Amino acid sequence: MSDDWFEETLYPGVHSRLRIDRRLYQGDSEHQRLELFENDRFGRVLTLNGVVQTTEADEFIYHEMLTHVPLLAHARPREVMVIGGGDGGMIEEVLKHRAVGRVTLVEIDAGVIAFSKKYLGSICGDAFDDPRTNIVIADGLVHAETTDDRYDVIIVDSTDPIGPGEALFSDRFYRACNRCLAPGGVMVTQNGVPFMQPAELAKSVSAMRALFADAGCYLAAVPSYMGGSMAFGWATDDGALRATGLSVLQSRFDSASIETRYYTPAVHQAAFALPRFIQDLVG
Ligand code: SAM
Which residue of 57, 108, 114, 215 is surrounded by the most CB atoms within 10 Å? Predict the structure, then answer.
């Protein structure tokens, strides 16, 4: 019997495939098509609307870099908001910071949370049930525009700018996040693979630059997001955050005593060193 393959067609003219060694689920939630399968190399793979969201094998890279870079650059992150993040991997990483008093997860699709609790325990652990976790089922754009809460760190862990995720790449959304960011706070965003999605990154950083004193991006290569390093948007009014020194990062990392498999303070600093073609993209 021939192999069964998942084929991602996110990019015109470029398809990537993963062999389906064990199909676990296929179905529609209120907002999206969910698929879950096992692949010998990547473990469990979650896809939404035919796009890889997270895999057991390499989720640590993405979640560690979108969590520990902003939280350790910020002196005292007490209130954190994760927009999207329905697989629970981001809040699981945020909750490792004992100084964080509350993490608010704003997820548009309750079905993704229910599904992840059932099938992706290796990624979310019991983060959804942690007493510090506050789950809000809503469009991240609407929540950011209307909440009275203020956040020290906002992590936008969204799908790509298609379907419900499109709103989370708009100027209106970045304005809303600027509104609910506490003084000295920082917003970071999942901003695609610049080699494959250059216009997406350029547009996001340009929109952030119009709203924040310091806007740019940093990088990490996540194998299951094909095409080279992934970019993470960075936006804050405190320009000093990005330049947090290695010894300060190291002492904060040591006192947080968090186990990581990718993040180190030196990797944190190096992640902001951009290759020329990405520097040219973000200006
Ligand atoms: N790591 C993945 C990536 O880089 O593409 C993202 C993972 S996470 C599963 C993405 C989540 O964003 C999904 O659970 C999806 O339901 C959620 N989402 C999409 N649009 C949203 C919106 N407008 N407001 C809140 N959540 C949204």
Answer: 108
**pLDDT tens per residue, range 81-113:** 999 999 999 999 999 999 999 999 999 999 999
**What pLDDT shows up at residue 128?**
98
For a mutational test of ligand 1's pocket, the pick from 67, 82, 107, 120, i.e. the residue with the most ligand atoms closer than 8 A to its C-beta, is 107
Residue 169: left if φ>0, alpha if ψ -120 to 50, beta else—which one? alpha
- Atom 18 in ligand 1: residue holding the nearest Cα: 84
Same structural domain, 15 and 148:
no
Whether 26 and 160 map to the same domain: the answer is: no
Which structure tokens are listed for 199? 């216009």
Please check whether residue 156 is in contact with residue 189, taking contact to mean a CB–CB distance below 8 angstroms: yes
In the beta sheet, which residues pair with residue 133? Answer: 103
Q: Give the structural domain span for 176.
A: 59-282
pLDDT, tens only, 219-240: 999 999 999 999 999 999 999 9
Across the chain, mean pLDDT equals: 96
Catalytic residue numbers? 157
CA 74 to chain centre: 17
Measured by CA distance, the residue closest to atom 15 of ligand 1 is: 84
What is the pairing mode between strands 214-220 and 230-236? antiparallel
